[in-house]
């Protein structure tokens, strides 16, 4: 049926109205409905809408009417590659004006393709290109079984309608691009956090198969690459690892980048803990392979946390929190490990969060207090020193020792403020006792964290506190652990020298744990070595510990250093130390840490009653 200009205008308006409402979700359905109307109006047998994919140089079938009842598999019309296409299909790659084809020898190849897919021996066709600027993005075609003439008005109308379909195509592509960007990471092309959360919400819905496994990846020491080679190299490294994750796992696993150097893999199928752990180790090995960047061959290990959720029971936040706790455990264990979430991890994390929450205002609230551990001459019971130990009266967990909160304080940059409070409070107590004629000959020992040593103005702060309370030179000793000494020996040497100049004694705490400070003793301004409790606890029964303690005693004698044994808890240990020349000690056999008032009372007596003898 050949349409009049007026009826063609009405047809175009009807098409425009319908296509205006099409979205990425409804575009195929709306297109089929429009094609059905056009087939009826134009009196043809078949219509089709095809999009060009210029990346692969192919024409892809998007919609057709009527839908073929028995579509061959594979369908010869679904994707037609231009390189292999007959001349008729090839024209649609770059056509700019409508093309009309009628039964004639020049179109035999095209006729044969149509006959194979529709079992129709002879056809005529009119196809209008979809254009976006100067790019041909597809074709809108109409086929008549047998022959049909097309008027100029009809071809003009088809051009207009094709332009309307091109607008829908552009709108759909824009929507799909926005959806892609909303759900994918810019740097790697992996899914992003939003897509991950949506996927896990769906997988954890009641009635879905489970358990749902989640593998949380955190690269170890990526910062070193950024610092050494720059962030561009770091980004390239992340892209390489993302591609390895794609290649190494099941193609249907969801892989997401949460940001930075954190990735999550969610296996597509329900997977038990053993299988999920095995997958984690497999992927860990793939990511460990070397990467070449700017002539540098780099290797980075990865820590992985494995967690599982039960559909209908656990939420997405539950599952990701568990996986995050597991990967933190892996990293805190030295990295390059796979850790599986346990209930114990949850309890530790809950405890840490509670500590962090209440620690922020602990100094202002007055909840901190000091206990003191006496240091005794085991030959006489004389009090030689006292070590200040911070305690925290937690609002719900009772009295907490430093091991429960110092690490958290360091992680939230509170260690410096906490250390200053300990130093001022200990010096204030010490000065008060001395003003009453007590403890004039003892040493106040105060622990210093690694963070304090590198804080600007630390030495000046210490000197100011000593001056504020009028404490004599050499009456206060700062204790640093052996591993701190060797982390940055040059910086440590400068800081310790400045502290000595300010009138402070220096002790190396936990000495002997690695022998790492032995070679530096000659050049460090150290006054005292404190033997690590791990070597003292079994003295009298472990010959290996005795050999180490004897070596430390000899070392202290060679360098003219005071020696203190920590953790003396048995008479056997005390007697062994005395027998080998170490008489200064602290530990539960002698005294537990006591409050300031109790220490003041002890100082008034001058000594402890010794319950053993050499």
UniProtKB/TrEMBL annotation:
SUPFAM superfamilies: EAL domain-like, GAF domain-like, Nucleotide cyclase. It holds the Pfam family GGDEF. PROSITE patterns: EAL, GGDEF. Residues 352-607 form the EAL domain. Residues 210-343 form the GGDEF domain. InterPro entries: Biofilm_reg_signaling, EAL_dom, EAL_sf, GAF, GAF-like_dom_sf, GGDEF_dom, Nucleotide_cyclase, Rev_trsase/Diguanyl_cyclase. PANTHER family: BIOFILM ARCHITECTURE MAINTENANCE PROTEIN MBAA (PTHR44757:SF2), DIGUANYLATE CYCLASE DGCP (PTHR44757). This is Bifunctional diguanylate cyclase/phosphodiesterase. It comes from Mycolicibacterium poriferae.
């Amino acid at each position: 049926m050949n349409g009049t200009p007026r009826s063609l205008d009405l047809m175009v308006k009807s098409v425009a109205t319908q296509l205006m409402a099409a979205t990425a979700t409804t575009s195929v359905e709306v297109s089929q409905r429009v094609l059905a109307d056009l087939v009826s109006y134009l009196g043809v047998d078949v219509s089709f809408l095809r999009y060009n994919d210029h990346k692969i140089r192919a024409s892809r079938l998007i919609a057709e009417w009527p839908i073929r009842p028995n579509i061959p598999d594979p369908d010869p019309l679904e994707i037609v590659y231009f390189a292999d296409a007959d001349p008729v299909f090839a024209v649609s790659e770059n056509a700019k004006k409508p093309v009309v084809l009628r039964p004639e020898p020049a179109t035999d190849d095209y006729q044969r393709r149509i006959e194979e897919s529709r079992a129709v021996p002879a056809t005529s066709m009119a196809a209008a290109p979809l254009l976006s600027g100067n790019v041909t993005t597809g074709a809108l075609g109409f086929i008549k079984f047998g022959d049909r003439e097309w008027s100029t008005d009809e071809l003009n109308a088809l051009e207009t309608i094709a332009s309307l379909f091109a607008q829908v195509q552009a709108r759909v592509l824009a929507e799909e691009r926005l959806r892609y960007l909303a759900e994918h990471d810019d740097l790697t092309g992996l899914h992003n956090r939003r897509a991950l959360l949506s996927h896990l919400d769906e997988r954890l819905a009641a009635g879905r198969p489970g358990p749902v496994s989640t593998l949380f990846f955190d690269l170890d020491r990526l910062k070193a690459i950024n610092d050494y080679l720059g962030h561009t190299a770091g980004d390239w490294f992340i892209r390489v690892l993302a591609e390895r994750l794609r290649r190494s796992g099941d193609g249907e696993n969801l892989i997401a980048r949460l940001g930075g150097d954190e990735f999550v893999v969610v296996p597509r199928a329900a997977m038990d803990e053993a299988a999920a752990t095995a997958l984690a180790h497999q992927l860990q090995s793939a990511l460990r392979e070397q990467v070449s960047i700017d002539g540098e061959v780099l290797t980075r290990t990865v820590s992985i946390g494995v967690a599982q959720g039960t559909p209908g029971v656990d939420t997405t936040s539950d599952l990701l929190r568990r996986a995050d706790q597991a990967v933190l455990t892996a990293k805190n264990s030295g990295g390059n490990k796979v850790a599986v979430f346990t209930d114990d991890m949850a309890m530790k994390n809950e405890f840490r969060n509670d500590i962090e929450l209440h620690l922020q205002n602990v100094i202002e609230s007055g909840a901190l207090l000091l206990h003191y551990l006496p240091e005794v001459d085991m030959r006489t019971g004389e009090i030689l020193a006292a070590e200040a130990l911070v305690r925290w009266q937690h609002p719900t967990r009772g009295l907490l020792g430093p091991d429960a909160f110092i690490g958290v304080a360091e992680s939230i940059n509170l260690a410096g403020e906490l250390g200053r409070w300990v130093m001022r409070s200990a010096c204030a107590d010490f000065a008060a006792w001395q003003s009453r004629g007590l403890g004039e000959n003892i040493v106040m020992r105060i622990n210093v964290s690694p963070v304090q040593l590198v804080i600007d103005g630390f030495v000046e702060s210490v000197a100011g506190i000593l001056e504020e309370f009028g404490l004599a030179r050499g009456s206060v000793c700062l204790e640093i652990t052996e591993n701190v000494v060797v982390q940055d020996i040059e910086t440590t040497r400068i800081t310790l020298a400045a502290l000595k100049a300010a009138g402070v004694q220096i002790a190396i705490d936990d000495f002997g744990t690695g022998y790492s400070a032995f070679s530096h003793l000659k050049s460090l301004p150290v006054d005292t070595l404190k033997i690590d409790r791990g070597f003292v606890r079994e003295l009298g029964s472990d010959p290996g510990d005795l050999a180490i303690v004897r070596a430390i005693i000899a070392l202290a004698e060679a360098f003219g250093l005071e020696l203190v044994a920590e953790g003396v808890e048995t008479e056997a240990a005390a007697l062994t130390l005395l027998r080998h020349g170490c008489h200064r000690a602290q530990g539960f056999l002698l005294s537990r840490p006591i409050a300031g008032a109790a220490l003041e009372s002890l100082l008034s007596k001058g000594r402890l009653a010794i319950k053993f003898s050499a």
